[in-house]
Amino acid sequence: VNYFFIIILLSICQVSGSDIHSPILTINSGWRNETIITIDTQTHIDYGLAYPVTYEFIIPSDSDNLQSYRRFQSTQDWSQVVEKTA
């Protein structure tokens, strides 16, 4: 179900973004090993785009003691994402 939502969202981004010459969804790599996912404000208002959303990253197998953080606006402080195992 999550993959279906992501595929639909990406399809909407390709169609709508190309019509208005503005991307609805952008994914960039920051300068400090950050992955920045940005969603157009109007799309966020229209669809909510609240949790749960699935993000998938390829992490090298020799990595350990990793932590992830999130923020919703560049002016906010980072907050650590709590690991969920169930």
In words, what does this structure look like?
The protein has a domain at 2-59. It is 30% helix and 16% strand. It contains two helices and four strands; from the N terminus they run αββαββ. It has helices at residues 2-20, 41-47; strands spanning 25-29, 35-39, 69-70, 79-80. The radius of gyration is 15 Å and the shape is globular. The two termini are 18 Å apart.
Short key terms for the protein model shown above:
single chain; 86 residues; alpha+beta; two-stranded antiparallel sheet; two-stranded antiparallel ribbon; 2 helices; 16% strand
| Shape verdict | globular
Radius of gyration: 15 Å
Strand adjacency order, main sheet: 1-2
* Helical run tally: 2
**What is the average per-residue confidence, as pLDDT, rounded to a whole number?**
71
Poorly predicted ranges (pLDDT <50, ≥5 residues)? 14-19
What amount of the residues lies in strands?
15-25%
The helix content is 25-40%
Order of helices and strands: HEEHEE
- Could you give the distance between the termini? 18 Å
Output the structural class: alpha+beta
Main beta sheet: strand number and arrangement?
A: 2 strands, antiparallel
Number of strands: 4
